[in-house]
Design brief:
The complex is a heterodimer.
Chain A: E1 3-4, H1 18-22, H2 28-32, H3 39-47, H4 51-59, H5 65-71, H6 75-79, H7 91-101, H8 103-109, E2 112-113, E3 120-124, H9 128-139, E4 143-148, H10 156-159, H11 168-179, E5 184-187, H12 197-203, E6 206-209, E7 215-216, E8 229-231, H13 232-240, E9 250-254, H14 258-269, E10 274-279, H15 290-298, E11 302-305, E12 307-315, E13 318-331, E14 337-350, E15 353-356, E16 360-361, E17 394-396, H16 399-402, H17 407-426, H18 447-452, E18 462-463, H19 466-469, E19 477-478, H20 482-489, E20 499-501, H21 511-515, E21 521-523, E22 527-529, E23 549-551, H22 558-561, H23 563-567, E24 579-584, E25 599-604, H24 612-620, E26 625-631, H25 641-657, E27 666-671, H26 676-693
Parallel strand pairs in A: 1-2, 3-4, 3-6, 4-5, 6-17, 8-15, 9-10, 9-15, 10-11, 24-25, 24-26, 26-27
Antiparallel strand pairs in A: 7-16, 12-13, 13-14, 18-19, 20-23, 21-22
Helix pairs in contact in A: 3-4, 3-7, 3-20, 4-7, 5-7, 5-11, 7-20, 9-17, 13-14, 24-25
Chain B: E1 2-6, H1 9-16, E2 21-27, H2 30-33, H3 39-56, E3 61-67, H4 73-77, H5 80-83, E4 88-91, H6 95-105, E5 110-112, E6 114-124, E7 127-132, H7 148-151, E8 168-169, E9 172-176, H8 178-189, H9 218-233
Parallel strand pairs in B: 2-3, 2-4, 4-5
Antiparallel strand pairs in B: 1-6, 6-7, 8-9
The chains are: A alpha/beta, B alpha/beta.
């Protein structure tokens, strides 16, 4: 493998508009993501068919992108402004699509990073936070070694998340990306057992502890000790490493969180037909994600809400069931976890095996009496502002210090810890220089904008039917095909990717105010286009007489500056006319245009961005005709586009006629179908018309 | 604001065709608002000229740029060196801008890229109406806020004339009779009796008849002096 001369973290991929986005409120999806993934950017790139660019945007902040494309709890979707219109974008599923389409690309780009710092780092743990910290530090030029107690990397991702949710080959793609930077890997290596932390601290210039929460909590109830009662994490580990325990015919899972769902659904896949769950919370209070609960129920798991475990019932040592007591309430007046029980109401739930899934903790035994101090609750003492432990070169990341959370939150923590350690080794101030989670975000859609938006159904995420998926650990969710992905990506309203006014060029002429269908501009001394209103349609920019409006998500000059390449060489003896065709990709995506070579297609997110200057440029570069192909009435994603662009065509014709170019050579056409073929036939019909009119000689 | 309108490309071509390097220089205030000569239209004219020169087989280098205003030197200071690298500046500012730049640019011609039409308002998007003639002696308080100098075809001071016809001027059905409007407006305001006073013949020396005009605001001119002092204090700068 060749060594790269650059350090990737210093030069991450920057999508168009990345810099200006840093100066403005984030889109709510991005603000909600702990790693601040630029969702708007990558969804927009998917909509343009730029899948590897989308992959770059995703992985520039997330080294476990494949994992997140499968299991992320997608706070971006919960924050999506489409929630106020119909349903959120299927962001996670679009991420999966972009990653699946970039498989060859990502493998080809793996390379070693140069170890330029002359310093080595030990990362303990290879879950989301450990992998992220290792990735960042390797990218920064450190010699990184990962220590993992399991035989494979990935932490809980590899050892506890069941493969029906996270196929291991997806996890391994992420791991390979990280490791290929030249990271040393020591698996099956347990700190404390194989080497003391103090010695490891001497081996390395800095340590990151990212051991997660890999131990299950148990219950202190009668009968809990002995066969037939399992703890969640050891159980999931046994399954992951193919040491499948015998569960009997009836399994009862204690707990109502996401791990409990994993346990119950794993038990179903081990052939147990009768899997039930019991938890303190009501259905609404359960901490598991609603979709996890729904999927478990689909798979035949039953849930007994509002019962608390009292005693494991055994006969001759063999588990018979669980005695439970009715719960009055789980939380007290102040919302704190403080369950109260109705001791008089009890029942026994029969079970052959009981699996306890009530929470996790870390194994801190290797820190006992060492340089990294624990607090009175046995947790690592750390400074949230610096990620430092009590030992100056030992940093901490992930759930071991933050407590239980999501994979993507652990990624964010890993980034912070890596940056903290880097700053420390550079002798720079850490506090105040780490990435922050809280960012200003664009407000929710104003009601009058919601009223203007069309309802567009979210593309369904298909699952294997429950009767099939319960027989196997195969991943149960089916990825989007290209048509579905493009359609879904087209639903994005482009929050934060819209219009921006350059106050040095704006003369407050009110043109944008008059042209905007959504009431986004407010004009005082200069215009300000309010991002909560702006739908990023791009209608205003080509109208601005001062060329003061740019778009965050694309270069408004790009089409005309690349027109020489778009038109290419024109054969003076050609028999077919050269046609520049602007095609809205909203309905057909970018894959649907199969047109003859004489038709130079220019895919656009909407014809709203087509400028009079773009049309002039096409003719200037040798086009015989220009077609602007719009969506049919009522199907445009935006408002007022056809009328406005039609006026622009009129203006272009007026100018072109002064140069002797006939009006018929510039047309706005309609493709009334979602079928790419219709777009093609509209283009070819136009091409025939231009052929009859004759080819331009100059 | 000053309203301009675009010239036909043939006329512009005749002006510029002898030059090898041409820059179309837009003005981003009045003439941008009326979509005649701002940055956008300057680029449009440049694009048209490129196509025309290519059609004519003429080797011409055409580009465009713009600044906020052409009528104050500070605005074009930053581009003046660039402008001087061309053979011709085609200014799409109003005539004020063309004159003003001509005086300052040195031995490079500055030609008008648009026609300067009038002082006007924007009653609706894309429509511009002349409402003031800049005559230098305003009497709008006597005419209900409607200017007979700009809006009466004959510039009558005591109208209307016999050519008024159901509110329209005899020169065309689309032209309002300004004096009809004045009478209606003053009736509405309850000041119609003011019209019984004859407006005496006025002196046109404040208008074009008095030759080129100049306004000097002395207390503002003092800025200029203090700026000079600053420069002196700055030594060799």
């Amino acid at each position: 493998m060749a060594e790269d001369n650059t350090t990737a973290l210093n030069e991450p991929y920057r999508p168009y508009g990345a810099d200006i986005k840093e100066t403005r409120p984030y889109s709510p999806c991005r603000a909600a993501c702990p790693a601040h993934t630029d969702v708007q950017a990558y969804v927009g790139l998917i909509a343009q068919g730029k899948y590897t660019e989308a992959f770059e945007v995703i992985t520039s902040v997330n080294p476990i992108a494949s994992v997140c494309s499968m299991i992320c709890h997608h706070p971006c979707e919960q924050a999506c402004r489409r929630c106020g219109v119909d349903e959120p974008l299927a962001v996670r599923h679009l991420k999966r699509f972009a990653i699946e389409r970039s498989q060859d690309y990502r493998r080809a780009k793996r390379k070693l990073t140069k170890k330029t710092r002359g310093k080595s780092i030990g990362v303990i743990g290879s879950g989301p936070s450990g992998l992220t910290a290792a990735n960042d530090l390797a990218s920064l030029g450190y010699d990184v070694t990962i220590y993992e107690r399991h035989p494979v990397l990935g932490g809980m991702l590899a050892s506890a998340i069941p493969p029906y949710r996270l196929p291991r080959e997806m996890l391994n793609e992420d791991i390979d990306d990280v490791i290929s930077k030249g990271i040393n890997v020591k698996t099956g290596f347990e700190i404390g057992r194989d080497r003391k932390l103090e010695d490891l601290m001497k081996d390395h210039d800095g340590i990151v502890i990212a051991i997660g929460l890999s131990q299950s909590r148990s219950l202190n109830i009668p009968g809990v000790e002995g066969d037939g009662v399992l703890l969640a994490i050891p159980f999931l580990e046994d399954v992951a490493f193919d040491r499948k325990p015998d569960l009997g015919k009836k399994v009862l899972v204690i707990g109502g969180g996401n791990v409990a769902m994993d346990v119950a659904r794993t038990a179903r896949r081990m052939g147990v037909k009768d899997v039930s769950m019991v938890c303190l919370e009501s259905a609404e209070e359960m901490p598991a994600w609603k979709w996890e609960i729904d999927e478990a129920i689909e798979e035949g798991v039953t849930i007994d809400n509002r019962w608390g475990p009292k005693a494991v019932k055994r006969e001759n040592g063999k588990v018979q069931g669980l005695e439970v007591v009715k719960v009055n309430s789980v939380f007290d007046d102040k919302g704190r976890f403080n369950p109260s029980f109705d001791d008089k109401t009890t029942k026994i739930i029969e079970a052959d095996t009981i699996i306890i899934t009530i929470g996790q903790m870390s194994n801190m035994s290797f820190l006992k009496d060492g340089p990294v101090k624990l607090d009175e609750r046995g947790l690592i003492q750390w400074d949230r502002d610096t990620h430092m432990s009590s030992a100056s070169n030992v940093f901490v990341a992930g759930e071991v210090v933050t407590g239980p959370g999501s994979a993507i939150a652990a990624v964010a923590s890993g980034h912070r810890a890596a940056m903290a350690l880097h700053l420390y080794l550079q002798g720079e101030e850490i506090k105040g220089n780490l990435p922050e989670h809280e960012k200003d975000k664009i407000d929710q859609l104003p009601g009058k904008v919601v009223d203007l938006l069309d309802r567009e159904q979210r593309q369904e995420i298909k699952h294997l039917p429950p009767e099939v998926r319960c027989d196997t650990f195969t991943h149960f969710e089916i990825g989007y095909d290209e048509a579905e992905a493009l359609k879904e990506a087209g639903r994005c309203r482009g929050c934060g990717g819209g219009a921006v006014v350059d106050p040095n060029r704006c003369m407050a002429c009110l043109t944008c105010l008059r042209v905007c269908p959504y009431g986004a501009p407010k004009v005082f001394a200069v215009s300000e286009i309010r991002p909560e209103y702006c739908q990023a349609c791009g209608l205003c920019a080509p109208e601005c007489p001062g060329q003061a409006i740019s778009m965050v998500s694309y270069d408004v000059n790009e089409i005309r500056s690349s027109m020489p390449d778009i038109i290419g060489k024109r054969d003076p003896k050609r028999s077919d006319p050269v046609i520049a065709a602007f095609l809205c990709t909203h309905h057909t995506g970018v894959g649907g245009f199969n047109v003859p070579g004489n038709i130079r297609t220019i895919p656009v997110h909407c014809i709203s961005r087509v400028d009079v200057l773009d049309v002039l440029s096409a003719f200037s570069n040798g086009a015989d005709g220009v077609a602007v192909i719009r969506c049919a009435d009522g199907s445009c994603k935006y408002k007022g586009v056809a009328k406005r662009v039609s006026s622009r065509i009129g203006r272009a014709r007026e100018l072109l006629s002064m140069l002797g170019i006939e009006n018929e050579r510039t047309e706005m056409l309609t493709a009334s179908s979602t079928n790419g073929n219709r777009y093609s036939s509209v283009c070819t019909e136009f091409s025939e018309k231009i052929k009859e009119l004759g080819l331009r000689s100059s | 604001m000053i309203v301009g309108s675009q010239k036909p490309i043939d006329e512009i071509w005749d002006m510029v065709k002898e030059f090898k390097r041409v820059i179309v220089f837009g003005c981003n205030t009045c003439v941008a608002i009326c979509h005649a000569g701002g940055s956008k239209e300057a680029e449009t004219i440049a694009s048209m000229l490129k196509m025309r020169s290519s059609n004519e087989g003429v080797d011409m280098d055409v580009s465009s740029t713009s600044v906020m205003r052409h009528c104050e030197p500070e605005y074009f200071d930053e581009v003046i060196d660039e402008l001087r690298s061309y053979d011709l500046v085609l200014s799409t500012a109003c005539g004020v801008g063309v004159n003003f730049l001509s005086e300052r640019i040195g031995n490079i011609p500055v030609y008008p890229g648009i026609n300067t039409s009038f002082f006007g308002a924007v009653p609706e998007a894309g429509v511009f109406e002349e409402l003031c003639a800049g005559c230098g002696d305003c009497i709008l308080h006597m005419t209900g806020g409607i200017c007979p100098v700009a809006r009466c075809s004959k510039t009558l001071m005591n109208g209307p004339c016999g050519g008024t016809n159901e509110g329209k001027c005899e020169i065309g059905k689309d032209v309002d009779c300004a004096w009809y409007l004045i009478v209606q407006r003053m009736k509405d305001l309850g000041t119609i009796e003011k019209l019984s006073e004859v407006i005496p013949p006025r002196s046109w020396s404040t208008s074009r008849d008095g030759g080129p005009r100049r306004v000097s605001v002395e207390h503002i001119r003092e800025y200029e002096e203090s700026a000079e002092q600053k420069t002196e204090a700055g030594g060799s700068k």
